[in-house]
Specification:
About 30% of the residues lie in helices and about 20% in strands. By secondary structure, the chain is α+β, with helices and mostly antiparallel strands. It folds into 2 domains: about 60 residues, no CATH class; about 130 residues, no CATH class. The protein has a 7-stranded mixed beta sheet with strand order 7-6-5-8-9-4-10, covered by helices on one side. The chain starts with 7 loop residues before the first helix and ends in a 12-residue tail after the last strand.
């Protein structure tokens, strides 16, 4: 998935932290809170920012409206994957996220200073991982992702909203310096995952967290 230059997702990727004031809902034009939800536009392959009122409309209709789908905001930490699991998924790097497509294929994405590169995951390997980690069957196409972090000795595996993954891509692009990343990118990545932990729900716990960031 790429972010069109003028899309809300493009704004997520480009803007500095903290979020700019006076942003508006992409559907009705109302002012946005600093933390708000997003819609996936399946027709345009982009993401739209939504105010509380518009979010409620889509929360009441789980299937979405037309080509718009509300991006879930539930974050679940999974048990640790083994080295063999990661090898089977073809993860060559310390940070990667995996997104199921509408046709059932799974694409792996590698956040880098230049954006996110991607490759297709072997279908048999993914089925094996799903059997070992049943929550992966909850990956709704396009809107949720498996996020893997093994950077600097970390062993974190998450189910997250897709917009979290694009924030991570944005963070790396913004903080990376030189060939190795410099002195700020890895502390920023660690803080990103600390923030995920603050908003998580244990695997298997129901409910929805109202904590999506704009």
């Amino acid at each position: 998935m790429t972010a069109p230059a003028g899309s809300a997702l493009g704004r997520i990727i480009r803007r500095p932290e903290p979020a700019r004031a006076a942003e508006r809902c992409d559907l009705c034009g109302a002012d946005l809170l600093s933390r708000h939800r997003h819609l996936l536009d399946e027709r345009g392959d982009g993401v739209l920012c939504t105010c509380q009122a518009c979010t409620l409309l889509f929360e009441r209709e789980a299937a979405g409206r037309g080509h718009y789908r509300l991006i879930p905001d539930r974050r679940v930490r999974l048990p640790e994957f083994s080295r063999e699991d990661l090898t089977a998924l073809g993860v060559p790097v310390s940070l990667a996220f995996f997104v199921r497509q509408a046709d059932g294929t799974v694409m792996a994405h590698y956040p880098s200073p230049a954006g996110a590169t991607r490759w297709e995951v072997d279908p048999d390997a993914w089925k094996t991982i799903e059997r070992r980690f049943p929550p992966l069957r909850e990956l709704e196409p396009g809107v949720r992702a498996l996020l893997v972090n093994t950077a600097r000795g970390a062993r974190e595996h998450w189910l997250v909203p897709i917009d979290d993954c694009f924030r991570l891509v944005a963070l790396i692009g913004r903080e990376w310096r030189g060939l190795s990343g410099g002195g700020t990118v890895w502390p920023a990545v660690e803080q990103f995952f600390t923030d995920l932990s603050a908003r998580r729900k244990p695997a298997g716990v129901g409910g929805t967290e109202r904590s999506g960031d704009g």
